[in-house]
Structures are given as structure tokens and as C-alpha cells.
Amino acid sequence: MQETDSNIVDPRLDNESWASVLIESLPYFKQWVGKTVVVKYGGNAMLNEGLKSAVMKDIVLLSTIGINVVLVHGGGPEINKMLERVGKESKFVNGLRYTDEETMEVVEMVLTGKLNKDIVRILIEEGGRAVGLSGVDSGLLRAQKIEKDGVDLGFVGEVMEVNPEILTSLLERHFIPVVSTVALGQGEDKNFYNINADTAAAKIAVALKAEKFVQLTNVPGILKDVNDSSSLIPRIPLPKVSGYMQDGTIAGGMIPKVECCMTALKGGVPRTHIIDGRVPHSLLIEMFSERGIGTMIY
Predict the structure, then answer these.
(1) Strand pairing category for 151-162 and 192-195
(2) Is 109 in a helix, a strand, or coil?
(3) How far is Cα of residue 93 from the mean position of the Cα atoms in its chain?
(4) CA distance 292 to 295
(5) Which residues have a Cβ under 8 Å from the Cβ of 160 and sit 6 or more positions away?
(6) Which of 13, 43, 220, 281 is the least buried, fewest Cβ under 10 Å from its Cβ?
(7) Per residue in 153-193, pLDDT tens?
(8) For 87-117, what is each residue's pLDDT tens digit?
(9) Least confident range of 24-28, 135-139, 217-221, 232-236
(10) What are the CA-CA distances from residue 204 to residues 67, 114, 229 (Å)?
């Protein structure tokens, strides 16, 4: 076989080792074909071009072999950049972005108009069939305004209803839906709302009866010691989560991610994962290897 830049054989693996990798992967290919996986995409994997390319290649591969993949993305850093560019200060209340009318316009423009279409473009370039959506399209996500500890957050919403028909229709036609988390209000409320992407992804996973919900993050997973990456906890059954929260193992920014996993699990999703999006092809490692990667909460 003639070698090219894209298929140079790794000299560290001999033919027998390559065969072992493929043989190990085969049962997982069979296991996941026809199943639905919801991936929340954000963090460093979204900012680094090399990691972005790896994630898109992974998703196209999953789709190509017959796995139904829904990609839900955030875009906080890009929103911050655009707000800075237009001279508007980013303001946060208890970790949530305060979203006035002007900020909401920027959120919608960045998430739905720029990032969503950039992701779709890359997926198509990698050979995938992708369609970009926001939570507004076909009433996919319906939200109500929320307040945090009695503080008005502006146009920040909580997902109250997921109408997955548009996603189901696209998956049946072997498209990859790419969802930005701008939602429409309920009933007579015609406002758009900024939605936490982790929470939206978890609720979409429930609505689709997904087999897996995966969050790509900026950490290796849940660690016993946050300063020691070798202290990764690879598997946590749901009943043990509260204990890890009480003893401080699950703390800070990891709490909302774990809560999203709990939302998915309690809604019927069998497996949830918090994996390191900084590791190239971490999604494939999780899907198709015995060792997996990150932390599975099940």
C-alpha cells in the first residue's frame, strides 16, 4: 500500500498488534450499530483545531458504521470573544451568564449562525451528512425563564420540553443532527432563551431514549485527587454518586456535569460518560475499547 500523510502506518504497532486492536473493537461495533449516542461538545476540544478535527472524524466514523449520533454544542469562549469585540462586558451570576436582550442576540448569532455552521461544514468535509439546528427549529427545545437564588438572569432558560421528532426524522435518514442550545419559550412566550448545553444534551438524550450520553470536558474525568490524574475513578454506579458529593470528591464545576449524568440516567439512559476532550479520538477509545476513557456513571 502506498503511504500518504493520512495513512502512514504507526511504526510502534506491528501487524499482530493492529489486528488485535481491530478484533477488540469488533464486538463494540456490533453492539452500537443502530443505537443512539448523544455527545455534548465543548471546552478545549472546541477551541483547538487539531482536537476539533479529531472529534469530527470520530463522529463521522460512528455515523458511517450505523450509529445514530446527535451532537449538542456550547460555545461560551466564542460568545465571550464576540461580546468583547462589540464592547459588551460578560457578566456571570453564580456561574450562569447574565443574558440581557443584546447579549441574547450575540448568543444566537454565535451559537446558531457561526459555530453551528462551522461544525456542520467540518463534518461534511470529513465525509459526514450533517444538518445544523437550534433548539428553536421545529420547537425542539421549549424553555421557561429561570432565576438563580432570586436573581434575574435575563433571557436564561431551563428546558421544560423536548420535541425530538425533527431529530428522529434526521437520524432515520442517516444525517448527523448538530444542535445549538438556543430555545423557544413556552405557550405565549415568544422569547428566545440561552440554555446550558450540558443540561440540554442530557434532556435530549432522555427524549431520544439514547444508549449513551457523553460529555467531552477539559478534565480526565472524576478524580479522587484533583491534583493527581492517575486517581481517575473509571466507573461509578448511580447510588454511590451522593457519597462522592458529600465527601468532596465531586465538587466545583464537576457537580453540574454529574447532575446532567444523573438527569440522563434517571430518564432511562443506561450509560453516561465524562471524558477528556483534550485526548485525540477519546470518543472512539470510549466506544470501541475495553479500557474506555474517563468516568462512566451508570
Answers:
(1) parallel
(2) helix
(3) 23
(4) 9
(5) 142, 143, 144, 186
(6) 13
(7) 899 999 999 999 999 999 999 999 999 999 999 999 999 99
(8) 988 888 767 788 999 999 999 999 999 999 9
(9) 24-28
(10) 16, 22, 30
Length of the chain measured in residues: 298
Is pLDDT above 70 for 2? no
Residues 170, 204 contacting (CB under 8 angstroms): no
CB count, 10 Å around CB of 75?
25
The pLDDT assigned to 11 comes to 56
Which of 181, 213, 239 is CA-nearest to residue 295? 213
Cell 451568564 belongs to residue? 97
List CB contacts of 192: < 8 A, sequence separation 6 or more: 104, 108, 136, 155, 182, 183, 184, 185
C-alpha 250/C-alpha 130 separation (Å) is 35
Q: Specify the pTM.
A: 0.90
* 87 CB neighbour count, 10 Å cutoff: 6
Residue 266, Cβ neighbours under 10 Å: how many?
Answer: 11
Instruction: Select from 83, 82, 189, 88 the least CA-distant residue to 146.
Output: 189
